[in-house]
Design goal:
The chain is mainly β. The protein has one domain: Lipocalin. Helix content is 2%, strand content 36%. The chain has one helix and 21 strands. It has a five-stranded mixed β-sheet, with no helix packed on it. Strand 7 (122-124) and strand 8 (127-131) form a beta hairpin. It is globular and about 60 Å long.
Length: 245
């Protein structure tokens, strides 16, 4: 049976009466930080109440077969990030990113990519960073949603029908993580077609380094037969010390 998440209501973090008090303590990326700790030094207010809510359509997860659906759940729910007085959300059904006012839930701006936005966004200074199934990494101005730069992570613009959508042959599903002005992300989900892992300059999108050899390793597979395979990034990257996970 196809799984659908129905009746979705965006309560987000903004049911908390004390959240506005902590504007200096942002939640700029998935699970707050590069370690994905899901924690912050801020404390919640004693009295919590609903300030606003916004209704969105049900999510349509990328994988609907039981095996992949359970293993890869990265786009089953909305994953908002917060910076200053703004909330940023990516949509896998509308191919868009929206910025909301944290005090009222009012939409400030929206931006449309050329494919589903499935992975969580990240904010670095005044820049909003994310990837899409169109094979691109995007950098937008957080204030007005204008494009600062965008970088094709896939080796070409070739498209195909995948997950019921027209997407890149190498969709960018390596969710961005950013540290010290460097973005880490990736494209391609099938190692046989090549996997492309990048470190990009957050200010310009220029390539700092690129790893495109991990998909060519001939290794033993779980089914006890060797094949050309290796890393197939689908999910948000994590940084632990000098390791990119």
């Amino acid at each position: 049976m196809k799984l659908r998440i129905s009746g979705l209501i965006l309560f987000l973090f903004f049911i908390l009466s004390g959240f506005l008090t902590f504007a200096s303590e942002d939640w700029p990326m998935w699970r707050c930080d590069v370690n994905r700790s899901a924690s912050t030094s801020c404390q919640l207010a004693d009295n919590l109440y609903l300030q606003w809510q916004v209704n969105y359509s049900p999510r349509d997860p990328v994988w609907d077969d039981p095996l992949n659906r359970n293993l890869m759940q990265y786009d089953r729910v909305l994953e908002p990030v917060v910076a200053g007085n703004m909330v940023f959300i990516g949509f896998n059904d509308k191919d868009k990113v929206a910025a909301l006012d944290i005090g009222s839930g009012r939409e400030i701006w929206r931006f449309y990519a050329d494919g589903p936005v499935r992975l969580p966004l990240a904010v670095y200074k005044d820049k909003l960073l994310f990837t899409g199934d169109d094979g691109y990494c995007y950098c937008l101005n957080t204030g007005d949603g204008s494009v600062v730069w965008k970088k094709l992570l896939a080796p070409s613009e070739n498209r195909l029908l995948g997950n019921k959508r027209l997407i890149s042959m190498w969709p960018a599903r390596g969710g961005v993580v950013v540290e010290d002005g460097v973005i880490y992300t990736a494209a391609s989900i099938f190692p046989l077609m090549g996997t492309f892992i990048y470190a990009l300059d957050a200010g310009t999108g220029n390539i700092i380094w690129k790893n495109e050899g991990t998909g060519s390793n001939y290794i033993l597979q779980p089914h006890n037969s060797p094949a050309f395979a290796d890393i197939a990034p689908q999910g948000a990257f994590t940084i632990s010390g000098d390791m990119l996970l």
